[in-house]
Amino acid sequence: MLDAVNVGHGAVALGIGMLVGLERERRKGRNENQAAAGLRTFAITTLLGYLSMVLAGVVLVAVASLGLVLMLCTHYRDHADNDPDITSEIALLLVLTLGALSLKEPELAAAAGVVLTVLLALRRELHHFVLQQLSEQELRDGLLLSTVALVVLPLTPDQFLGPYNVLNPRTICNLVVLLMAVGALGHIAMRLMGPRYGLPLSAIASGFASGSATIAVLAHRARQQSAAARPFAGAAVLSNLATLTQFALVLSIVDRRLLEPFWPSIWLGVLVTLVYGVFLLAPWRTAHGGATATPGAGAFSLWTALAVTAAITGISLLSAFLLQHLGHNGVSVAAFVSGLADVHAATASIASLVIAGKLGTDDLVIAGLLALTANTLTKCGLALSNGGFSFARYLIPGQLVILGAVWLGLLL
């Protein structure tokens, strides 16, 4: 039945065909290959898929697809010497499917059509990236990250095991993937935008996942490029913006009223972080020498990810041990030890005790700042162990100044 809905979905199908066809028509004109499919062919093909779906459903779409495949095979056999590329033939088959999909899922079909067009239009750029810019080590790192994230992680059991039931294999695997992804994100940002802009932006973004992990990865890269220790340290300092923001978010999620005594500390810490981080990056100076991601360098360090994960897991076990044997009387000690691994988890657990009436607000303030203090010490230790003195001499003073500003906020 012809109605407004069918007409609209048919227009989506036609639009997909014309969009892809426009790109193919331009390429056909540049290559002077008049036998290649162009605007009209792609538009007609999407209409064929749409009308086949309307008239007889999946069966007719399958028959039309089979006929199109036979035609494309014949065309490729006759023109293989002139144009061995089969991208247009595969795109024709896909747009027929998208035309059929437009009847039930026009949004999905339109999105797939746009993605297809972008991939076709960026042919030269993608080939240049793969052949000229992407190194063998980066390719292997990408495959390793994809394997761990898409194969190993889903198969890892999601349950608490071990002593005190605090070891979750899924969480541990997530942390390893996170550390590798943080390193890859920073590497990509450095390659695309350079050290001046890509490095601090990637550090802040990665800090929302794990501030300690971000500093560990940046310290490792600074050791490899000792001449660029200062900009790496500046980016690492700016990752504290994410730590302070998440600290505030965790408290606000538990109860917004718990944020009130922390506001001066948070704002003062953010201000000092910005000033110190920008001072290290010094955007008003000439470009930093040596702070580049070389094409032959790896995207991340697997051994660094495993080492940091092992350390954080060990600290989590120690925190559970203290809570088990000290109870709530040792909440400050437990908060400090927990903060060595993750300041947000420690803050959330203590805030929950305050809401339950087992602790007072004053206990939360001291315990929360102790968790931040412990986390700062962890970052300083990671900076020194992973980055060496050349990196730590810039980062550690900044971390201590930020920590002092946070504690000073209590007096305000």
Task: Please give a structural write-up.
This protein is mainly α and 412 residues long. The protein has two domains: 4-129, no CATH class; 134-411, no CATH class. The chain has helices at residues 4-31, 39-56, 58-79, 87-101, 106-121, 123-133, 136-155, 169-207, 211-224, 229-238, 240-254, 263-281, 302-326, 331-341, 343-355, 361-408. Helix 1 runs antiparallel to helix 2, helix 8 packs across helix 9 and helix 11 packs antiparallel against helix 12 (263-281). The longest helix is centred in the last third of the chain and has 48 residues, at 361-408. It is elongated, with a radius of gyration of 28 Å. The N and C termini lie far apart (72 Å). Residues 288-296 have low confidence and may be disordered.
Relevant terms:
single chain, mainly alpha, 16 helices
Could you outline the blueprint of secondary structure elements for this entry?
Elements: H1 4-31, H2 39-56, H3 58-79, H4 87-101, H5 106-121, H6 123-133, H7 136-155, H8 169-207, H9 211-224, H10 229-238, H11 240-254, H12 263-281, H13 302-326, H14 331-341, H15 343-355, H16 361-408
